[in-house]
């Protein structure tokens, strides 16, 4: 599997814990989702309707060698925030080519399938798919 080092590190963190500890780690990521920069408003971001909770993202590929990713999700949606934070931690600042090379199902290696509904996992897949679509359109 081809993962940027930062994303591989996140996957490794999830691989190092088991059972309910994976959910706790996901909640920790949810709490670490970076705030939006002052120049960006949620209303200008792309919604991801496949997510069960409101999620908005923005892809800034002005510099294709250092793509910036921004996410907005409400605090009362910790699973969605956690997924967004995983993508932010693992992919923000990476090159467009490296992001496009990430397998669409990389999230399976997080080991959350037994703990999170397939519908919620599809939300993470949808986030990555939209990021890739935006990069291809740039």
UniProtKB/TrEMBL annotation:
Domain of life where this protein originates: Bacteria
Fe-S metabolism associated domain: residues covered: 18-133
SUPFAM superfamilies hit by this protein: SufE/NifU
InterPro entries in UniProt: Fe-S_metab-assoc_dom
Family to which the UniProt record says this protein belongs: Belongs to the SufE family.
The name this protein goes by in its record: Cysteine desufuration protein SufE
Organism: Mycobacterium adipatum
């Amino acid at each position: 599997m081809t993962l940027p080092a930062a994303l591989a590190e996140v996957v490794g963190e999830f691989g190092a814990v088991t059972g309910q500890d994976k959910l706790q780690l996901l909640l920790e990521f949810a709490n670490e989702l970076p705030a939006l920069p002052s120049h960006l408003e949620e209303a200008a971001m792309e919604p991801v309707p496949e997510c069960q909770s409101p999620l908005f993202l923005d892809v800034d590929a002005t510099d294709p060698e250092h793509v910036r990713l921004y996410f907005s999700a409400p605090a009362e949606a910790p699973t969605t925030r956690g997924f967004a934070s995983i993508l932010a931690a693992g992919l923000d600042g990476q090159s467009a080519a490296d992001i496009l090379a990430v397998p669409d199902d990389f999230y399976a290696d997080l080991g959350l399938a037994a703990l999170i509904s397939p519908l919620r996992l599809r939300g993470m897949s949808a986030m990555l798919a939209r990021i890739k679509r935006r990069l291809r359109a740039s």
